[in-house]
Amino acid sequence: MISLLLLSLFGCTKTEGILLHFDGPIAAAIVPQGSTVFDEPVGLIANQRSGVIVPVDLKAGRLLSLSKTASFLRAPALPTGQDRLLGDVEVYVDPEGGATVWATDTGAPSVLRIPWYSLDDSGEPVLDTAAAGDAMFVDVDGTGDDAVLADVVVRDGFTTTEDWSVSYDGARWWAEGSASGPQTSEPFAGAPWVSDHGELGFTLSGSATAGDRFEIHTDTGLVEIPSEDVVIDLLVVGDEVWGSYSDATGSGINVWDAATGELRRTVQFSPGTGAGRMVLADVDGVDTVFVADSRLAQVHRVDVATGTEGDLIPAAGAVVDLAYSAGYDVNGAPFTHLFIAPLALNRVDVYDPVLNLPVDPNPLTPETDGVFLGSPVSGLAASIGSVWQQKTTTWGARPRVPAVAVSTSDGYVFQLDGSTGCAVTDLRGPHGPNQLWSTSDAYVSLNDIGPTSDSALWIDSYSGEQATFSNCGGVAQTETWTITYEAASTSWTVEGNHSGFQERHALDDVRYLSDDGAISFLIVSGALPPTDGDQFLLSVDSGLLTIKGVDSNVDGTIDDALVFPGRPAAFDYTVGPTGGGWDETDRREMLLLPLTDVDKAARIELDGGKAEVEWQ
Amino acid sequence: MAAGESAGPRAPDYRLVPAASPASVLRALPLPVLLALFGLPTLVGCVESRPLPDVGDCAVYPSGSYEYGQIGIGTCLAAPADIVPLDTDGQFAVVNANAWSDFTGGSVTVVDLGNVDTSLGRQTMTGIGATAVDLPSFSGAGALLEDGVLAVTNRLSEGARTREAEDDVYFVDLSDPAAPALAEGLTESGSSIGVGYDPNAIVYDPATHIGYVLDRTAHQITMLDMAARPVAIIPPGGDASVDGYPFDDVDGSGSRASFAALENADGTSLSPTAWELRWEPGTIRAWRPSTSRSPGLSRITGNGEGAWTATPGDPDVPGNGLGDLNDPFFFLDLDNVPHLLYIDDDSGGIDVLDGDSSMITSWTTADPLLATEANGSELVLGGPTLYQQSGLWSLFYDAGDGQTQFIAAATSTDGADYTREGAVVSLDGASLTDPFVLYDASSERYRMWFTVDDGADGVPDGIGEAWSDDLVSWTMSDSRFEPAGGAQSPAVTWLAGQFHMLYTVPGLPPIVAEATSVDGTTWTPKGKAFETTGLDRANTRVAVQGTDESTFSILGANDQVFDVALTPGDEIQNPVDGFTLRVAAGQRLDPDDAGDYSAGGVQLDCWVGSEAYVTLTDADGVQSIGRGSLVGDTFSLETEPVLQAPSTLEGLSHAVVVDEGSQLRMYVAGTSNGLTSVYSATSVDDGTVWTLDETPVLAPGADWESVGTIPGSAVVLDDGTLQLWYTGTDGGNPKIGLAESTDGITFTRVSGADDAWMLNAGGPGDWDDSGVQDPMAQVDSDGVVHLWFAGSDGNQWSLGYAEDADGLDGSGGFQLSTNIDEETRAIMSPTDGSFGVSDLVRPVTVPTNGGWTLWYTGLDVGVGRSGRAILHEPDRAWRDAAMPTRADTWGFVVQPEDTAQAIDLDVTVEGTSLAPVRGCSALARDDVRGFLYVTCKLLPEIFVVDIRDDTDTDQGGTFVDLNYLDVESVIVVETSTGGSAGPRAAVVDNEHGWLWTVSDTPSSLIAFDLSMLVDDEDIELVHDSIVSMLPLPIGNTRDEGVNTQADVGPGQLAMHPDGHHLFVTNFNDNSVSCYDLSVGTAGTLVGEATEVGENPYAIALTPDGTRGLVGNYSGEVEGTATHSTLFVLDTDPESPTFMQPLTWLVNK
């Protein structure tokens, strides 16, 4: 199977207006693995502001190349027009082997269907190429002007489907594309002209009068499907593309034929709803699309086969994003979990759509809630397979479980255990000051207020810790706990600067457990009883496995932070034996993560808990 | 037709301008622009020779040759820093900073969209008929006031940064937009008012007529009273003050406390703080035997007011291998090492466990202290109790044959080897067990409590008592504590001015009950303290430990605990927090009781039946006589005096009232011309109305009483003779005298045993060697004269007692109370922990059944408060103080002096000084919450300033809004670039309850959840409040179009009137973005106008939201010149040209 296509470039000399690879990378899609063209995983990144969709080679960590011998020759991007505001992107690979890219334009609004490649008779992939129609001169005043627009040039990877107008105002020529917008570059008679970003080239000659214009159509096969409402999210479901939309009165899903672009049906939700991001799931053998409601605290579920809406799933707030994780937990028990990120709560909740029950990662709290992550969730993505955990079991083993990756607006990627909803921790896990780990850590001693007291915070000589923490990652947050003796109740009040005031008070010589089970400690009384205001201050690190950026030179510091990560897309690939052939073939669980604010994209290795490649 | 006015395509001319060379860029953006908005380092610009500048026909050119900087701005645009909509018809005021100094100054230009033809690609300012008024350069922002007046901040940057330039707010009269002019007569100087350094943003609150000006370099917000004429600065603070709340006896227990001193102590840099005083009577620990299945002692903790908290789980003191631990006794030695004595269940001897000095749960077995006597009288031992003096341990226990027990003692000089001393307390026919010994500082005696059982009914008879002066000889009292249900096995501790006893109520299992007592003799049962579970015996003693530390905790803002426990009488000087504090507690009469009349103190003088007469002293020291009575256990004082001094006297004090049958007669001290005499007044209506005879009945006499005679008390003898005991003084050492009268008016002095006086000061070194006064005499039926009085050692006054058993016959004289060393002693002295820390004076006794009630006055720096004590013997006194309880509420508020003229943003939060405030750039007013938000480009924090006083005390609430006109909270901006940068602009989104801000690191819209803000009295750091982030174009890392070198990402924000379309200018990206906040989870980018000109910054929308006016700070770059522009943006979401620029407004 060939994995490369040759790219023929125009002999264009244009140097200005070369597109950046990324200009507001907002969404990513993974070409379905197992497709007939690519041996290795390929991703597509939609740029919100340039309107360009860029294919990337996910395994090689570079822009996709279609040349085996010249890997620096990147495959043409998929332009949609500089004036568009791209939202989501998806790719559909049809059974015949061709691929079509779908994207949303939130500014128009519309949905774009973009042919990418097809297979020729020999089964080899052929890129769909750009073409230009004949330039039509409109002699507005009928004066018989003889202006000529010749040597029209279009470029794959630059040209998109649109109508161009080249107008003369009596002094100057102006060019404007219906998708590329007004051009700052000015055509002059007799000189080759190229549009600002290389979408179109031509040479003008002859004379014209004010108001005369040329009209020319360029075409890449892109089809714009107008929409009355902004389409929020796209999802490929079989041979269909689902697009969620919402307007002032309600929301729903438009379902298009992925091959033809025809609208097959619409699933209309109730008034007041706000269909948002979607995820496809096999729930007990039933293909189901879960749809986040971005206005109401609920998740819709739609039976793929019938297109009917099932029972609503309650959520803690309007829903930012969803992920579906199914597999087996560390004990081999199967699970099917829907991960829900509610708006403004900066956490991720878990729901079992088979049992129709919420899953409580931390049963110690009376409420069913998820793991708090401290920042708005940008997106969720379930791993393709299982992910190695950092923290070992008591037996010293590193378990492997399906994970859900969570990107947050403050520049982190977390992992949640797909079976429990708990956050994955690093090797050390949640911890406080511990001289076994760091001699610079200070043990917490009593801040003795008023009359002399000598209570102490008990130290576990084995672990070196003065507190123990919940096994469910994320329950213990990075914060400072203040433990204060309250004489009126002859007990210690406990307050975390993030967790807040705890209803449970601590007693001398009785092991204490905070309300949510985040922290446990033992205050050992002394010969002199505690008095009002006596205080311990205990700083705790959540120990969560957080991916913060790329450490390019492997010096332990982050060189490129994950500034404003978008919604991640999960993929995996296998790597061959290493170690002289002694190692087994390894499957790596990865993420493709657009970094919207810094015009980059990152590759995250979930197993290693690190970001390792950046595209820019 | 002029070239610039020809009809043409939509694209503007500026797109044809080639990129400027670096040199021209520096010219285009010289020093001021970079400084004006963005705080960049100073750059050196290049100066080129060139033709006369042409900035358009909007300018006013001087004649002849001229340069940039010499051109009048006219109606030109020059770095528009702010745009303010003026009306509903599309008129805007554009504030021109003239940041490049192209012109002689800046301006406010009025643009009327009604004059703008949007079919044209561009129009000149002259062409649209713009009007303007000149201002100095470096204007910042504008706020529209009433009557068309625009307030404009000026001197944003340059000179202001170095604090060298004038920093003003100018007022521009735009009531006639066609003829704008500087407003006249609004300020002292006419049209401007000086504010803090580098005034930047300004917002105006029409409800309060206050303008808030953000002074960037001063890090302050100056408030302007815009309604005042002249406009005036409103200082946010006031004079320093410390105001105490009244003590509130919430639970009605009769407790009293007041401030003896409460003063401001500097603290000019402090924030207003409310402090709460919370009474902490201390902690009692008790160890009780556990079940027989799990032998040992389990601990339980009491708060001194009946609440007990058990320590669950295994026994705190494990008895494994030891058997049951019977009759435990907790003992903390002089080295603070804990010990537990107990009766060994196996050997029957007295064993001991030694505790670790720091961890009381760790106990080790020490050598037994005392074994049983196999062949002696101490076959069975029980109830050990130990008392340690320096070098001597005294062990008490019960001993006997198991049927009849007595209290025995053993002593040791090392605490280990004990020598039996035999029986010390016994009672014929009864068994005495479980002794518990405590030193009683009030009576200066050792006290012992024990179980008394006569054996008749198999049930203990109660708890008996004995006392000793030396721990050797004990005197058994007749008193018994015999509550219903029985009592045995006492364990006693001293806490909060009372004895607390835990005793066992017989039963299976037994219950431990609690009782309290002022004197250790008369006990008040408080009911069950806690249960014992699983015990298979009906009796047990518990071990107790009391902290004996009764204090007030001082709790301040942010749950701050002031690290000093406040003992009544102790003074805390706390300049850090701005207060000096001393309190009095436990008194029955307080200076607060009679308002202004008693502000300087009260003194109870005498009782007549159920009514008491008191001396009231006002704040000026003028004294009068008041009256009160006991209501229940609480003293109620009439708020008006019953007798005030006539003009001939300086005041009246020391009332002594005698019931003559038909009338009441009062003897009072009055002072005239420096001499104090005894005067008489009478009342025929039970003391309500008094008539004073202004002729003294006992004037100063001999040398020892040559300056004053002051009544002390009166005794009416059986023959009707009235004895008036009084204080006589020569101005120095007072003495006690006596005068007699048969008619109550004419007095004859009585000579005492020694001389003319009845009682003189004690000998040198005695407690009363400097004088005696305030005689309180009583003569009992045996003719014994009891005399209580106040004596001074030169430093303090104490109360003493003397008696003359011979009835003043001159044979023996008065004998003062003595101690074990036969030295005279006071019976009560001033002490901390209550009230009256300086002196105790004016004893007044009232006989009771079996003793006396002693009323006395305690002085604290001369201010009197009266309290009560109990006497069983005339010279043994126990204070019966009305001490506070935990339920009581009390506190004070410190308002430091605030001389500042503005609200300071450099604050300390939760004890931590934040990073220096830098780069504050915008204000956003929140009318819903009454806050003002301050965003700072160079600081990852948002300041929340409380601009609404939500104090509700006048509506019955308790909330005092101490943060009014101060920083209420600081929102922490926690992003991946946190710690380095913050938001530039902000706008309130009331649909979500969020605050949207723009930031360029990362370049984004960031929403903060305003529901996390709490309007309270503290300043808090607010974490985790970011609830949404939306991406914006490139931040300050890339510059579209001409490289203007200015590091600005997103600039300003404007919310559409529909409340959900939010517009952002992207300075470096040369674009304007629009997010629809109602689409998608938190908002979706629905429109972007790109390549709109260089550096769009200021933006404002028409009130109907259909049009926006955007200012391009740089605009068009032409060679070395930069020409600011405006463009009209279609901001109507329903328009087909939504987010398209409709036309540009240019200088030329």
Task: Summarize the structure in words.
The complex is a heterodimer of chains A (616) and B (1148). Chain A is 0% helix and 44% strand. With 616 residues, chain A is an all-beta fold. Among the domains of chain A are: 1-87 and 100-118, no CATH class; 131-220, no CATH class; 456-540, no CATH class. In chain A, the strands form 13 sheets. In chain A, strands 10, 11, 13, 14, 15 and 18 form a six-stranded antiparallel β-sheet that branches. In chain A, a hairpin with a 2-residue loop joins strand 24 (275-283) and strand 25 (286-293). The radius of gyration of chain A is 29 Å and the shape is elongated. The two termini of chain B are 14 Å apart. In chain B, strands 4-83-82-81-80 form a five-stranded mixed β-sheet. In chain B, strands 6, 7, 8, 9 and 10 form a five-stranded antiparallel β-sheet that branches. In chain B, strands 11, 12, 13, 14 and 64 form a five-stranded antiparallel β-sheet that branches. The radius of gyration of chain B is 43 Å and the shape is elongated. Chain B has five domains: 3-163 and 170-226, no CATH class; 241-280 and 552-585 and 889-893, no CATH class; 328-549, Tachylectin-2, Chain A (5 Propeller); 591-879, Glycosyl hydrolase domain, family 43 (Tachylectin-2, Chain A, 5 Propeller); 909-1146, Methylamine Dehydrogenase, Chain H (7 Propeller). Residues 1-48 of chain B have low confidence and may be disordered. In chain B, strand 35 (498-505) and strand 36 form a beta hairpin. Chain B is an all-beta fold and 1148 residues long.
